[in-house]
Specification:
Radius of gyration: 12 Å
Pfam family, one: WNWW
Shape: globular
Number of helices: 5
Strand content: under 5%
Number of strands: 0
Distance between the termini: 24 Å
Structural class: mainly alpha
Helix content: 55-70%
Length: 92
């Protein structure tokens, strides 16, 4: 996963400050590095996948709220191990 490319894509697509985006990019990178999503879905995590999935979150959500919404959906579908990839804090 190209983290710099993801950061730019998130900045263009969703509301949220630099610190919030950085936390989401870090969590997405950790998820990609874990291989968990690839094992559960049969495809590696990509920038396009992240943007597409986050775009489905409730309108008006910030980028971290969108990320946590998606991680929550993954936890329901594939197990609680996804909870570790949620964004809990970030610097403004």
């Amino acid at each position: 996963m190209d983290r710099e490319r993801l950061d730019r894509a998130l900045e263009r697509a969703f509301d949220g400050g630099e610190g919030e985006r950085r936390a989401v990019v870090r969590a997405a990178g950790d998820l990609a590095d874990s291989g968990r999503l690839a094992a559960d879905r049969g495809a590696a995590l990509t920038v396009e996948t992240v943007v597409r999935e986050l775009d489905d979150a409730p309108e008006g959500s910030s980028v971290s709220e969108r990320w946590n919404w998606w991680v929550g959906a993954l936890a329901v579908a594939h197990g609680d191990a996804y909870a570790q990839f949620g964004v809990r804090r970030y610097e403004e």
